[in-house]
Design goal:
It is a single chain. This protein is mainly beta. It has one domain (3-175): Lipopolysaccharide (LPS) transport protein A like domain (lipopolysaccharide transport protein A fold, Sandwich), CATH 2.60.450.10. Helix content is 6%, strand content 52%. The protein contains two helices and eleven strands. The protein has helices spanning 9-12, 169-175, and strands at 3-5, 33-36, 38-42, 47-58, 61-73, 76-92, 99-110, 115-126, 129-139, 144-148, 161-163. Strands 1, 2, 3, 4, 5, 6, 7, 8, 9, 10 and 11 form an eleven-stranded antiparallel sheet that branches. A hairpin with a 6-residue loop joins strand 6 (76-92) and strand 7 (99-110).
């Protein structure tokens, strides 16, 4: 049985779940919609657990997971943990018509430290650029990323992989400043 959860107060705390700072800022003001096969809400411990085909939508953010657990205290959201094979999310970037996508076996967000962690076959994609590793961490306060390969594994699967595609030539030429003092080409 699927439960569409739209107005449980603890869910509104998930609205503070920031993905990288480049994500659509207006999404934070949008309602959070969650669907799952089952949900457990513990008002005393302030823990919410959504299990089975979990779908979270907030504005342009869409996250899919097998399980999402949210913890809070008196000040609000403390942490969110999502697990799946894989957890996936997609969110529009702020100010441009481009999306950032992420995939990992586990996604953790610590609201107190403003840390996002993707672990286990972690991958982030922005446009044609992509980064892969066993662990990707992002500090939203400092806008600092760190990517680690898998330790104690032999072969190419233990290394961090980055793909940076060149911008199309037309875009690259637009980015160059005009220099009116340069003589014309013969």
């Amino acid at each position: 049985m699927r439960h569409a959860l739209k107005s449980i107060p603890i869910l509104m705390l998930l609205a503070g779940l920031p993905l990288p700072a480049i994500a659509e800022k207006a999404d934070r003001e949008k309602p959070v919609h969650l669907e799952a096969d089952s949900v457990t809400l513990d008002d005393i411990k302030k823990i919410s657990i959504f299990q089975g085909n979990v779908l979270l939508i907030q504005g342009t953010l869409v996250m899919r997971a097998d399980r999402i657990e949210a913890r809070q205290d008196g000040d609000g959201l403390q942490s969110v943990s999502a697990t799946g094979r894989p957890v996936s999310f997609r969110q529009k970037r702020d100010g441009v018509e481009e999306y950032i996508e992420g995939f990992a076996n586990q996604v953790e967000f610590d609201n107190v430290q403003s840390l996002l962690s993707l672990s286990g076959a972690a991958r982030l994609r922005k446009g044609d650029d992509e980064i892969r590793g066993n662990l990707i961490t992002y500090d939203a306060r400092t806008e600092f990323y760190k990517v680690s390969g898998q330790q104690n594994v032999q072969g190419p699967g233990n290394r961090v992989r980055v793909v940076i595609r060149p911008k199309p030539k037309a875009d690259a030429e637009k980015a160059l400043p005009e220099n009116k003092n340069t003589p014309a080409k013969p």
